[in-house]
Design brief:
Layout (H helix, E strand, L loop, with lengths): L6 H24 L6 H17 L3 E7 H4 L5 E4 L3 H13 L4 H11 L1 E5 L1 H9 L9 H11 L3 E3 L8 E5 L2 E3 L2 H8 L3 H10 L8 E5 L1
Parallel strand pairs: 1-3
Antiparallel strand pairs: 1-4, 2-3, 5-6, 5-7
Length: about 200
């Protein structure tokens, strides 16, 4: 999963994206093209794709089912297409780049859920242009397991104890015993022979 950007870095990216969107959409609006429904919808879809590519703002919540998955799915719970329409309407209304960036930031918020829950949410999407907290809570209550605070998984750490000498990695142990890292793993983890009984991997 990609590393989360710092708040200041995210805001700079949102400003850049908002500036580009305004430069792209305002000339179309001035020509009256965005008043054509299929053109409006297509451009709103393009903005939705920009939201998808923009840095995420994590809510800090994860579903119970999402915890069970190695890589939970990120759900833009305000709805990317709905947010795309909202942003386009605000551009047409002449709002500033900072205001568009603020709406973009709001639109990039994500919860962590399971893949199945993410698919199920599409079926209960209220499809409102502006989703209130109540709208989101209703959608989640229909198909998503309870939400809890997200705690990043601690990367599992092992040491390799070889006849009471402790090594912090397979590479360190391999260098000391003039063998490969695969040999260290085999002797400490896989081997069942008594020959390697003094070679052990321990969790810390």
């Amino acid at each position: 999963m990609a590393k989360e950007l710092a708040k200041e870095q995210r805001w700079e990216r949102y400003l850049d994206i908002a500036d580009d969107l305004c430069d792209m959409m305002r000339p179309l609006h001035e020509k009256g093209k965005l008043n054509i429904k299929h053109v409006f919808e297509r451009r709103a879809g393009l903005i939705a794709e920009e939201i998808k590519r923009a840095p995420n703002t994590y809510s800090g919540l994860i579903s119970i089912e999402g915890i069970k998955q190695k890589n939970p799915t990120l759900d833009h719970f305000t709805g990317r297409k709905a947010s795309g329409r909202l942003i386009l309407k605000k551009i047409m209304a002449g709002h500033s780049v900072k205001r568009i960036a603020a709406i973009l930031a709001w639109s990039t918020r994500v919860h962590r859920v399971s893949r199945a829950e993410n698919e199920a949410l599409k079926k209960v999407d209220t499809k409102k242009t502006i989703k209130t907290r109540r709208d989101v809570e209703w959608e989640y209550s229909q198909v998503v397991s309870p939400m809890v605070a997200f705690t990043p998984r601690r990367k599992q750490k092992y040491v390799y104890n070889i006849y009471d000498v402790v090594y912090n990695s397979t590479s360190e142990a391999a260098a000391a015993h003039n063998c490969s890292e695969k040999d260290i793993y085999y002797r400490c983890v896989t081997a069942t022979s008594k020959k390697w009984s003094g070679w052990k991997r321990k969790k810390i």
